[in-house]
Design a protein that fits this description.
This protein is mainly alpha-helical. The chain contains 5 helices and no strands.
Amino acid sequence: MAQSQTEAAPAARRQSVMDRFIDGIELIAAFFAGVVALDIFSSVLLRYFFSVQIPDSYDFGRLLLGILVFWGIAATSYRGNHITVDLLYANVGPRAQRFIDVFATLVLLFVVTVQTYTLFDKVRDTYADHVLTFDLRLPTWPFFLVAWLGDVSAVLLIAVRTYRLIVRPELLGGRYQFKPVE
């Protein structure tokens, strides 16, 4: 039994570069979720118990939340296990399901690509306009840049998902990884 566990461990470690990249993006999204939670917790704790406010806590909170949203889009767009409505999908055959998956992923790729382009304009505009935070007068464009990088990651992951859906669907695993709630 001990030998079978040691044989299974190297097999579990064998991941492609793309799978490690995907895991890294999910880890970055989780990190920003922790940073946002820590920012909110410490701001509330200091404000209500010690009557102290962190300078620019509101600006940091909203900028970090924006970063979290875009990295969260990157993390959920590849796995495909975000909230969906599958009324039509659940009632068609496997070929039609695959067609719907590919079509929906292509639409998502288009929308997020356009969103990435427009967000880059926002990064460029905040840099050119020298937009600063209120208290500490820090530039805000680096926050927008990090959010834009999350959006670029989403485009890359959606492109990988599209490729895998069309060419190598077995790399995505089973369609339903969770039991539906009834």
